[in-house]
């Protein structure tokens, strides 16, 4: 059974999909803890599903490195097999990535390597392209530049706004994430091999 720690900043819709998937006794992974960098709405899922949670507020630390060290300390308490960034809106310090990688994955609302960064959906709309996508990647020390685990195209409709497009991308992201966790747990995907 793969032990997961999931890190969030917002509502945690991808997290919820994982929690729902893991309610199936056959699903080979369990979320053992949920962490956040602020008092995130998604922590309500932890309460609802009876999962322990922790908050390491970014604003309580003098810099990103000391915040990262405190976050890493919390993560390590749970001895996870896999750490998932699920809408964590902060770049992890390099030494945190290096300590956890390649057992550190992230979802991104674009068909990487297209439109990396915090505004993937907005950037795709601004570029006037007809399709974008969703990706699951191994986190490295760059910005959305790690090895791609899976990705899928999502069409951009003529009347799409950032919100409507993002909502459709999230549906695909959730499916990709649950499948990626399943494949990692079953050994179909070898993160060490992928990252080498």
From TrEMBL:
PANTHER family: PHOSPHORIBOSYLGLYCINAMIDE FORMYLTRANSFERASE. (6R)-10-formyltetrahydrofolate binds at residues 64, 89-92, 106. N(1)-(5-phospho-beta-D-ribosyl)glycinamide binds at residues 12-14. Pathway: Purine metabolism; IMP biosynthesis via de novo pathway; N(2)-formyl-N(1)-(5-phospho-D-ribosyl)glycinamide from N(1)-(5-phospho-D-ribosyl)glycinamide (10-formyl THF route): step 1/1. It comes from Homoserinimonas hongtaonis. Pfam families: Formyl_trans_N. Residues 3-181 form the Formyl transferase N-terminal domain. This is Phosphoribosylglycinamide formyltransferase. Catalyzes the transfer of a formyl group from 10-formyltetrahydrofolate to 5-phospho-ribosyl-glycinamide (GAR), producing 5-phospho-ribosyl-N-formylglycinamide (FGAR) and tetrahydrofolate. The keyword Transferase applies. Belongs to the GART family. NCBIfam families: PurN. The record marks 144 as: Raises pKa of active site His. Keywords: Purine biosynthesis, Transferase. GO terms for cellular component: cytosol. It comes from the Bacteria. The lineage of its organism: Bacteria, Bacillati, Actinomycetota, Actinomycetes, Micrococcales. InterPro entries: Formyl_transf_N, Formyl_transf_N_sf, GART. GO terms for biological process: 'de novo' IMP biosynthetic process. One of its GO terms (molecular function) is phosphoribosylglycinamide formyltransferase activity. The active site is at residue 108. Its EC number is 2.1.2.2. It catalyses: N(1)-(5-phospho-beta-D-ribosyl)glycinamide + (6R)-10-formyltetrahydrofolate = N(2)-formyl-N(1)-(5-phospho-beta-D-ribosyl)glycinamide + (6S)-5,6,7,8-tetrahydrofolate + H(+).
